[in-house]
Amino acid sequence: MLCYILAFYSYVGELPGFEYQITGYLPSAVFGLWAGLSTLFVGKYLNKLVSWKQRHGIRFLIQCTALYLIGLVLIAIYSEMFLISLRGDLSYSQFWLIYNDEIFKTLLILFLVVLVYCIIDFMIYSFNQMREEEIKSVELMNNQLNLQFEALKSQLNPHFLFNSLNTISSLLYKDKEVAEKFIRMFAESYRFIFKQNNRPLIPLQKELDFVQSYNYLLQVRFQEAYELKINIPDKAMESYVPPLSIQMLVENAIKHNLISQTSPLSVDIEINNNYLCVKNNINPLREQPESFQIGIENIKKRYSYFTNDSILLDKNEHFKVSLPLILQS
Predict the structure, then answer these.
(1) Structurally, how many domains does the chain consist of?
(2) For 323, left (φ over 0), alpha (ψ -120 to 50), or beta?
(3) Among 23, 47, 211, 256, which residue's Cβ finds the most Cβ atoms within 10 Å?
(4) What is a GO molecular function of this protein (predicted)?
């Protein structure tokens, strides 16, 4: 419509009046609507073909070129209608001679409008993308905290606490020095749980230190019927794990197996092909606790936030869970 007013004023010397509303304003409004719909169509089509997320530069160039070509087509059609409605006796050469300045201005205005629109479109995309990333980041953090809270609850179960207190009670009458160390390790384990559980990842060395403290409680409780072996090279200590992940696997081995002098339980922690493996022999209980799959799923979900590698399960002669090493925090 602005192009129509500009061309009319250049030719006649005054603004178009009411009598030109149908012949001038209405076609201009229709062509403006076509231009808007064409712009939306091009944007949706390019989102499927070359989205802003894939290649910013190529998308910007293609969108500018496509919109400019569409604008040229609409201007050519509009110019033909304008030529017929304003002065039907004008030839194309006469129309060019009279309106060449307006045509150049219109093409320049079209270029600037297309350029500004593409810049604004990219800015809107960038803002929406940033907002989506912030929302995903908050959701990710909330999911991690929920999973770690579930892991924390599993470590604070009354059954383990009751058994530990019973062990302390019996040790106080048998060996006060062992009882004192047991209480110290018991307190150290729970201090680690509360201190580290709010972190998404911790160094493998810290997790193994906690497992050693937790293991002392198990050794006092089961004596020779239980054994833990840790064989981890120093280089692997630079990797990271979700807190309580290894301890949960050791605890699962305790929960789901019969432990006695005649059926001892042995748990091995080692490195194999960039995986940390927790392996134990199988002495199954008659009734398996329901918490096994819950614990494994908790570990899987927490690992999925940091690596695409899957957690591997193997149950043949031994039950083995392999956790992928996370090399960066």
Answers:
(1) 2
(2) beta
(3) 211
(4) phosphorelay sensor kinase activity
Query: How high is the pLDDT of residue 22?
Result: 47
Residue 11 clears pLDDT 60, i.e. is over it? no
Could you read off the pLDDT of 103-149 as tens digits, one per residue? 777 778 778 888 888 888 778 877 777 777 777 776 766 666 566 65
**First-to-last C-alpha distance (Å) of the chain:** 59
Do 176 and 240 belong to one domain? Answer: yes
- Phi-psi category of residue 13: left, alpha or beta, with phi > 0 → left and psi -120 to 50 → alpha: left
Give the DSSP H/E element, type plus range, for residue 154: helix 92-155
**Geometric angle at alpha carbon 202, from 197 and 204, rounded to 5°:** 125
**How many other C-beta atoms lie within 10 A of the C-beta of residue 21?**
10
Enumerate long-range contacts of 271-275, CB under 8 Å, 24 or more apart.
271/231, 271/232, 271/233, 271/236, 271/325, 272/322, 274/324, 274/325, 275/312, 275/322, 275/323, 275/324, 275/325
The verdict on residue 144 lying in a domain is: no
**What is the CATH classification number for the domain harbouring 160?**
3.30.565.10
Average pLDDT, the chain: 76
Residue 268 CA to residue 280 CA, distance in Å, equals: 6
CA angle 187, 190, 194 (to 5 degrees): 135
Domain co-membership, 131 together with 188: no
Are the C-beta atoms of 219 and 173 separated by less than 8 Å?
no
* Cα–Cα dist 202/329, whole Å: 8
Read off the DSSP letter of residue 309. Answer: P
Tally of CB atoms within 10 A around 276: 24
Q: Does residue 164 fall inside a structural domain? A: yes
DSSP class of 273: T
Check residue 313 and report its DSSP letter: E
* Inside any domain, residue 147: no
